Amino acid sequence: MTKIALFGSSGQIGQAMLRALLSTTFHEIISIDQPASEDKAKDIAVGSEDKRRLKTVGMDILEASTDEIASTLGGVEVVVSALNGKALTTQGKIQDAADKAGVRRFFPSEYGMHHIYTDEKGRGILHPTWNMKEEAISIALHHPAIAAGRMTYTLIGCGDFYNQDREKVWCPWTQRDAPSYTLHILGDADAKVDFTHINDLAAFLVATIDNPSVSENKSLNIVSDHLSYNELAALLEKYSKKEVRKVVYPIEAMHRAWKDPQDIPEEVKGKSAFPDDFWMLVKGMQGSGRFWRPPGQVHNDLFPDLKVMTFERYFQSRFTS
Length: 321
Known about the structure:
Elements: E1 3-7, H1 12-24, E2 28-33, H2 38-44, H3 48-53, E3 54-58, H4 66-71, E4 78-81, H5 91-101, E5 105-107, E6 117-118, E7 124-125, H6 128-141, H7 144-148, E8 152-158, E9 160-161, E10 181-186, E11 193-196, H8 198-210, H9 212-215, E12 218-222, E13 225-227, H10 229-240, E14 244-249, H11 252-259, H12 276-287, H13 311-320
Parallel strand pairs: 1-2, 1-4, 2-3, 4-5, 5-8, 8-12, 9-11, 10-14
Antiparallel strand pairs: 6-7, 11-13
Helix pairs in contact: 1-8, 10-13, 11-12
GO molecular function, one term: oxidoreductase activity
Domain NmrA-like: 3-257
InterPro entries: NAD(P)-bd_dom_sf (IPR036291), NmrA-like (IPR008030), NmrA/Isoflavone_reductase-like (IPR051609)
């Protein structure tokens, strides 16, 4: 597989994927994104050799027709969707275009872990953020091209992204110059959680592309570390040599926040790029001991050369460099 089209390369995950594709493979890459994002893709391709392998296409995916998208995919063998939010609604159209262009492999946008929230009355509820992703995945995996065998798929999931620099409350340890750190925890601080470094996800993507028979028609997951917030706090204190404060809310705080957003603690309200109630659900699932995958559903071992960034390695690099 030598020609890859990446949709959404300007996003947080898409940028990491583009860097990985340009730095660890020799494939030809087409970055298809909003016209205003073309320069961002070019900036990522810092080396002259990288730039020769990168083609950027400015396109308003929301407005473009299937035929217009298909016209950019000539010779493309792999389409990777790193879309989110409103742009995710176009993924079906992109897959239709990929089918018209004869694309062999499709990577739907997943890159997470979804949970059904059970309220105090025992009703299962899927948060709109997770539901949007689930619906897009269902459409992708049941696409006529997949059913007919004209196209194969690879779906990649992961743990909680722990190196989001923009998330000063969700990932406070990313703020290296902070005088101290506060971890906001729901439920059991000893509950184990799956975490993933964004660059590990991107490297895993490249490995699945470079090993197409291993990843054909598979749902795969990449995890960088599996530890509790108490263990995380101890590592953070050890390497940052700063005070680490733990604020632990009872799991009931998740139920209160779901019923009434005004009950979300003031310390975290409005502090994330994600909706407040979504933040509370993710932390609540973690503190409930549900935010990890069992053996057999983590696939790091498929690619033994892929060395993941554990929290200890991350903290060592971040605070001792």
